[in-house]
Amino acid sequence: MDTLIVRDLGLQAYQPVWQAMRDFTDNRDQTTLDEVWLLQHERVFTQGQAGKAEHVLQAGDIPIVQSDRGGQVTYHGPGQWVAYLLIDIKRRKTGVRELVTRMENAIVAVLSHYDIAAHPRADAPGVYLDNNAKIAQLGLRVRKGCSFHGLSLNVDMDMEPFQRINPCGYAGMAVSSLREALGHKPDMQAVRDQLVSEIVSQLGYTASQFNPDRPECLPG
């Protein structure tokens, strides 16, 4: 049970993937291998369970989806890697707080490959640059002892939509990307591969297995 299945789902609308995560979680059993889904989303604002409408300042042409993850409002769009962690945390004897810490550590390790210093914050989940600009967002849901949702890392994306919200419920919070921190365009696939490697390492899997097939619970 120490093998992690990794899937790259490409560019996807938010709601079908969200439903597929719930279906996967509801239908898995003790023999189901854990999975990580890597993807980029079409432009969307998502509100967490605690999300407040006033934190969406002006959505404009970007849809808003009320999600069941933790946290407040955030933005997803092309050029941002999203990693959904479908983990049986009960089987792995991992608590939610520990899983969040390991996710944050994985992102910090990815950024260190680019000589970018970053850190988590005790008062606001996520990963931040030394200038306190947020570069990665976290939000989880746990059901039947299994996690879904996960993290998003801003790599090479249009940052303007973050100005339309109070990111994660914090008015005026600065948000950055790997491209802004580097001053040049990063290789999206290289960042993806580094992110997978660090997730595997941080969560203690002995191996990862790339599966190019779409999960059966994702339509199309």
Explain what you see:
The protein is of the alpha/beta class and 220 residues long. The chain has one domain: BirA Bifunctional Protein, domain 2. It is 24% helix and 29% strand. It has four helices and eleven strands. A hairpin with a 4-residue loop joins strand 8 and strand 9.
What's the count of strands?
Answer: 11
Describe the global form: globular
Poorly predicted runs = none
Find the CATH topology: BirA Bifunctional Protein, domain 2
User: Termini distance?
Assistant: 29 Å
Strand content: 25-35%
List the helices and strands in order.
Answer: EHEEEEEHEEEEHHE
Content-based structural category: alpha/beta
List the keywords.
BirA Bifunctional Protein, domain 2; alpha/beta; 220 residues; 8-stranded mixed β-sheet; 3-stranded mixed β-sheet; 24% helix
Topology:
Blueprint: E1 3-12, H1 14-27, E2 35-41, E3 44-47, E4 64-66, E5 74-76, E6 80-86, H2 96-112, E7 118-120, E8 127-129, E9 134-143, E10 146-154, H3 178-182, H4 188-203, E11 207-210
Parallel strand pairs: 1-2, 1-11, 3-4
Antiparallel strand pairs: 2-6, 3-5, 6-10, 7-8, 8-9, 9-10
Helix pairs in contact: 2-4
In short:
With 220 residues, the protein is α/β, with parallel strands linked by helices.
